[in-house]
């Protein structure tokens, strides 16, 4: 398979109070990335480190404890719950307050209905309220991406095509959003400019030709997978002749995709297997007909750049 998964370790953060449910999404998020992202997210909301919450700190006693429920207000697929414990742990540490116990009722990748309880949080009220918006922003964003991805994965079920994400992600949240794609049943293509080479039209212009661009990448980075973008059947065949084994078929109509896939497959006896990815102008309504052309993948930037959040809430239920 030409697509790549992130190289981050599969292990999750080790919470101060262990959650009752563990993620089944692999590979998991890098604990160092989780810690840094949560730190920056909290500092943004609290105005620094440690920062302050002028409302909660003025109105709630340090000794006051409570139970809160994290709930889904919409139907969808949840993701990002693996960050909840880290958020409350960091708030507790910043202000020297007691720990919050997080008991997860579901794992990332679970389909949920409106009103479904996702987790029970027990601990100081100040911590719960100072952590509330940060944990909701992260989990709601990730859950929105997972929900959008699941719609594509469901539509492609029973076909040979897999939905891929792109690099069109929120700055600073790429690891989370690509994790959420996996939670929703999709696959990551590449994490960045460093792990897969993608020869696009501007590279071809700069190098002089498709062949020159492919050879230049292979000479400089022989260990890296090279993908070539093609807008026409002729360009696709030129790329294969140059040695490309992974093609990005960009903004092709269904008839052109059908013609291109057939032409490339016809030559695989000599070239070896070539992986084919359709991208551009893809919608759920077109998913089945594009899959029927025989492509291996469909990359959909909207999974990350346009997915609406999944509405989640943190509600105090007792004090």
> Which geometry do the CA atoms define?
elongated
The whole-angstrom Rg is 23 Å
How much beta, percentage-wise? Answer: 15-25%
Through-space gap between termini: 52 Å
How is this structure best described in words?
By secondary structure, the protein is of the alpha/beta class. It folds into 2 domains: 31-152 and 308-318, Quinolinate phosphoribosyl transferase, N-terminal domain (Aldehyde Oxidoreductase, domain 3), CATH 3.90.1170; 154-305, TIM Barrel, CATH 3.20.20.70. The chain is 40% helix and 18% strand. It has helices spanning 31-46, 54-59, 84-95, 125-156, 174-183, 201-207, 210-220, 233-241, 254-266, 268-271, 287-291, 302-305; strands spanning 65-72, 76-77, 101-104, 111-112, 117-124, 162-164, 196-199, 225-230, 246-250, 275-279, 297-299, 312-318. Helix 11 (287-291) links the parallel strand 10 and strand 11. Helix 1 packs across helix 4 and helix 8 runs parallel beside helix 9. The N and C termini lie far apart (52 Å).
